[in-house]
Prior knowledge:
Elements: H1 8-18, H2 25-32, H3 44-62, H4 85-90, H5 92-101, H6 120-137, H7 142-152
Amino acid sequence: MAQLNVSSTTTRAIKAVTGYEFTNPANLSEALDTTGLHRRESNQRLALLGDAALKLALLDDWYPTGYTKGRRDFTEGEAGCGHNIVVDIGGNASLARVGHECAISHYIVTHPGHFGRVSDKVVAATVEAIIGAIYVDSGKDIAVVKSAMEALGLITSSSTY
């Protein structure tokens, strides 16, 4: 199968919203390709890896807090409602919202026969795939993943879990 080439406009747009410049453009190409025409599994493998990297980035900061599983602070210093941070931040609804707000949805490569709006599920999976691509491209540097998540608005530098 032929490799999908991403335009320089797309590369710049993704860098603008993630703060990350890809050293290997093929990683970004794979992350944005949902067609299965260039890779048999499209961006699904990167999305699975991105989901795991996202969880690691979240739980890496959560673990030292000593909170029990699922607790999250929503206000300064007060125990929250027991929300699970992984579901709250890394769930499809949150990822799709970010994907639309950051206009990632405009750069998703869909099948030539697809017309109309890209579904929230596909947008969420593509955001995960981009996170996975950043993880791979950065040499598996979780600090770089956290920085991209912050640039996307998924977390803040002062996130308290």
